[in-house]
Design brief:
By secondary structure, the chain is an alpha/beta fold. 58% of the residues lie in helices and 7% in strands. It is found in: Membrane.
């Protein structure tokens, strides 16, 4: 059978009848054939997929310094050592994910690696961890962006939560417009951030080299340090390292977004990943160095800074460095702050690309609702974006958009996925080296040639190193952050994984239940149509017309009588107008409608055999939202109840009232002599037609 491409008129094109506000915010719908036009070149993919990793350098050094200051100013001497460890880990993770992209370019990322190499449960755990981390990425990024805005404009502090929620809504709208449009919006702030922060680092280092080192506004503040034992000192350093590791968040997003790249997808994704890692490492190291040079003192509790007025918001580390380097009221200071705030807010965009793509993969595999695998008007997985936005807004409201609180929940999920993903890659390369397998063949490495084996050995070394380091960091992060709020994440991940396994079982059971088998039989002893009649009006006449045109074996009209006088009057009208089908009156002493019809169908089948029954229900189509409250919507309610009866198909026959012209954008009234008609919309079976209005002029 051939594939037919119907000529869909503008009138019935998807989205043509969408509300005006939606079309203004999101734009006109795109056809499925335009999906390739939405693929990203490297210069646009960088701000889309790397904004999270790049922006995290704005708060990772701040969190590192803040944790070390708990032990006093002398603990800042550990900052270079901790920063070097973070940079080394970042390099190893980037190299590891280059191997992962090469082996599994389909976009499943760590989830696909863990599922294929470690089994179903580890794969689902990785997926749950990533989904949780994406929600927290949006919350932390937006909270950090708002924090930097408040550092420049302290008067906005009372509106912290409102600003955060508003920015999430704005990011949702921008992403719903499509990947390409979002990349254009996000590209400029990301590149401005890279350029401005890079210029600030170079300027600060040059000033230091020339003997005019910049001094931060908090450099003169001493700190009320805690008395720590030797064990506590080690834990404090490890906690600072785990906070600094927030600079690694977002690295995995590129592996999940490979399908969004232009061809050659793998090479472009790998190049973007390396570029992202290089820029992030340089910015992180540079900002950490300037924090030490300028003497930034940033405390978890501002009141611990001796001499600081803790009734005012504490300036962020980025704001203090920019003020010390360029001057507090200078244009460059505000450029850095504005770029930092923008890129932190837009860093949430990484999650708005990773979460929907992962959700679509999970939906295809049966672990998530199938609606997550549905593309919206702009060819993006809009349901996943909306779900992510709602989750992030809930987190921001619950934790009042406080960065220092949210950061404690962060990076647990991403290091769970890092660890299991790298372990899965180790098993993958070992399988490749043992010989050709289905898994290795799909990756492009069959283990046959010497060059392929050499490539597999290099991948095994890199991913083994990555596995050891990420597992070690996961243990450190767990120990140091668990009592500071990370335990919530450890509850959320298994709960979400359990729900995903439940969804999988549900879909499996449904597929088994509806699967066709050799016992299926076709045909029934009869075919009867029932036209529901309330009063004899044009909608009912049109429903009768469609039922008769369908040429059922038998067609009858049924009136549920809750008023004896009205039923008698209807019978008289039915005879006076010479209606072509018989009318049956069904008594309803309890004033219900669906139940008497169900009983009538049962009795009819007992008398005539197992007939296939089609129930025609006339229904009004209105244009104003308030009109729906002025009609009883009985047809919908009856349809929902009658669909529960086996062998019953429901056909809704819409009748377009004058106001329905608002939906289709045509004249509000037909020309003289033109009647308003409707075409049946079938539910639960038979045939489907769109409503028809008056002919176009």
């Amino acid at each position: 059978m051939g594939v037919v491409s119907p000529d869909v008129s503008e009138e019935f094109r998807d989205g043509a009848d969408a509300p005006l506000a939606k079309r203004i915010l999101i734009g006109d719908p795109l056809t499925s054939q335009q999906v390739d036009d939405q693929l990203l070149p490297k210069r646009m993919a960088l701000p889309i997929f790397a904004s999270d990793a790049l922006s995290s350098v704005a708060y990772a050094p701040q969190e590192l310094v803040m944790i070390l200051l708990i032990g006093g100013l002398t603990f800042l001497s550990f900052t270079p050592l901790v920063a070097v460890a973070v940079v080394v880990l970042l390099v190893v993770v980037v190299l590891s994910y280059r191997q992962l992209i090469k082996a599994y370019p389909s976009g499943g990322g760590d989830y696909e690696v863990a599922s294929k190499n470690l089994g179903e449960i580890p794969g689902v755990v990785v997926a749950a961890a990533l989904l949780v981390d994406y929600v927290l990425t949006v919350a932390v990024s937006v909270a950090s962006g708002v924090d930097n805005i408040i550092s420049a404009l302290p008067g906005l502090d009372p509106f912290r939560v409102e600003l955060a929620v508003g920015f999430v809504i704005l990011i949702i709208i921008v992403n719903l417009r499509g990947v390409r449009e979002a990349s254009l919006v996000f590209a400029i702030p990301t590149y401005v951030f890279i350029a401005s922060v890079g210029f600030m680092i170079v300027t600060g280092l040059i000033r230091t080299f020339l003997g005019d080192a910049p001094i931060a506004s908090s450099a003169d503040f001493s700190v009320q340090a805690e008395n720590l034992s030797q064990a506590a000192v080690i834990l404090l350093i490890l906690r600072a390292f785990s906070s600094g590791c927030s600079a690694l968040t977002g690295v995995e997003a590129v592996s999940n977004g490979v399908p969004a790249f232009r061809a050659p997808k793998v090479r472009n994704a790998q190049s973007t990943l390396v570029l992202m890692g290089s820029i992030a490492a340089c910015l992180f190291a540079g900002l950490t160095a300037l924090a030490l040079i300028t003497g930034v003192h940033y405390a978890e509790n501002p009141c611990d800074l001796v001499g600081f007025d803790c009734t005012t918001p504490q300036p962020s580390l980025m704001a203090q460095i920019a003020s010390a380097t360029f001057g507090g009221g200078s244009i460059l200071f505000f450029v850095v702050q504005a770029a930092t705030a923008c890129v932190l807010l837009l860093a949430a965009n990484t999650a708005f690309n990773g979460f929907p793509l992962l959700g679509a993969v999970l939906a295809r595999d049966g672990y998530a609702p199938k609606s997550l695998n549905t593309r919206g008007d702009r060819l993006v997985f809009s349901n996943g974006m909306i779900l992510l936005g709602i989750g992030a807004m809930i987190v921001l409201v619950v934790f009042q958009a406080r960065l220092t609180t949210l950061i404690q929940l962060y990076i647990i999920g991403v290091f769970v996925s890092f660890s299991l993903g790298q372990i899965g890659m180790v098993r993958h390369w070992r399988r490749v080296l043992r010989g050709p397998t289905e898994d290795s063949a799909g990756s492009g490495v069959d283990g046959a040639s010497a060059s392929d084996r050499r490539s597999a050995k290099i991948g095994l070394i890199i991913n083994s190193t990555g596995a050891v380091m990420t597992v070690l960091v996961l243990v450190i992060v767990t120990i140091t952050k668990f009592t500071h709020g990370a335990y919530l994440v450890f509850f959320a991940i298994p709960i979400l994984a359990f729900l995903m396994l439940g969804v999988k079982r549900y879909y499996r059971d449904v597929d088994h239940e509806i699967a066709i088998d050799d016992t299926t039989r076709f045909g029934a002893t009869g075919d009867v149509a029932i036209v529901m009649v309330s009063r004899l009006q044009k909608p009912v006449v049109k429903a009768v017309d469609y039922a008769v045109a369908a040429k059922h074996g038998k067609t009858i009209a049924v009136h549920v009588a809750v008023d004896a006088d009205a039923a008698t009057e209807l019978q008289q009208q039915w005879a006076d107008h010479l209606m072509p089908i018989p009318l049956v009156i069904v008594e309803s002493p309890y004033r219900s409608f669906a139940q008497p019809v169900a009983q009538f169908i049962k009795q009819y089948r007992e008398k005539h055999g197992s007939s296939v029954v089609t129930v025609y229900l006339p229904q009004y189509i209105v244009g104003h939202w308030w009109e729906s409250f002025l009609h009883n919507r009985r047809a919908r309610r009856m349809a929902n109840q009658l669909m529960l009866i086996h062998g019953v198909s429901i056909t809704l026959v819409p009748w377009l009232l004058d106001s329905s012209e608002l939906i289709y954008g045509r004249r509000s009234r037909p020309l003289p002599g033109q009647e308003r008609a409707g075409r049946p919309v079938v539910v639960n079976g038979r045939r489907a037609h769109r409503p028809a209005g008056p002919p176009k002029e």
